[in-house]
Design a protein that fits this description.
Elements (H helix, E strand, L loop, with lengths): L2 E3 L6 E3 L6 E4 L2 E4 L7 H7 L3 E4 L7 H10 L2 E4 L14 H12 L6 E4 L8 H25 L14
GO molecular function, one term: phosphatase activity
InterPro entries: PFA-DSPs (IPR020428), Prot-tyrosine_phosphatase-like (IPR029021), Siw14-like (IPR004861)
Organism: Rubroshorea leprosula
Length: about 160
């Protein structure tokens, strides 16, 4: 899969990382980006990358992040293959704090494969993120009524 962008010089093919997807506006997920994906990542104007693996980040990727002024936030979560092995709550909560802070957006969250290595932690992480965002939007929706004197008798409630 690739995206062809026309330019004056020639056509450029932008290749997203394996298992790339948009989770929410300004929040993306994928496998570990490869050098062939760097052009595509530039189009996202990322501010941050959340890396869920405990292994060191590849040097070539670090150089790309430095050149693009993207901050790397690593939360080393061991990949789990058994369903009832506890996920480190403190690590997940710290990563969630970073993820819901819009100053870090646009953000890419990834592990090595984007699906297998940290599948349980990743799913848990994304579910928690989506729950927090929905709660924020719900609270924001009702906060628009703050300071208004609404008579429930007038609206038939």
């Amino acid at each position: 899969m690739g995206l062809i962008v026309e330019s004056e010089d020639n056509d450029v093919v932008l290749v997203p990382p394996t298992n790339f997807s948009m989770v929410d506006e300004g929040v993306y997920r994928s496998a570990l980006p490869q050098p062939s994906n760097f052009g595509f990542l530039q189009t996202l104007n990322l501010r941050s990358i959340i890396y869920l693996c405990p292994e060191p980040y590849p040097e070539e990727n670090l150089e790309f992040l430095r050149s693009q002024n993207i901050q790397l936030l690593q939360f080393g979560i061991e990949g789990k293959t058994e369903p009832f092995v506890p996920i480190p709550k403190d690590t997940i909560m710290a990563a969630l704090r970073v993820l819901i802070d819009v100053r870090n957006h646009p953000v890419l969250i990834h592990c090595k494969s984007g699906k297998v290595y940290s599948k349980f932690s990743y799913c848990y992480f994304c579910c928690c993120y989506n729950s927090v965002i929905r709660l924020q939007k719900f609270c924001c929706h009702f906060s628009c009524f703050d300071g208004l004197n609404i008579s429930f008798e007038l609206i038939g409630a």
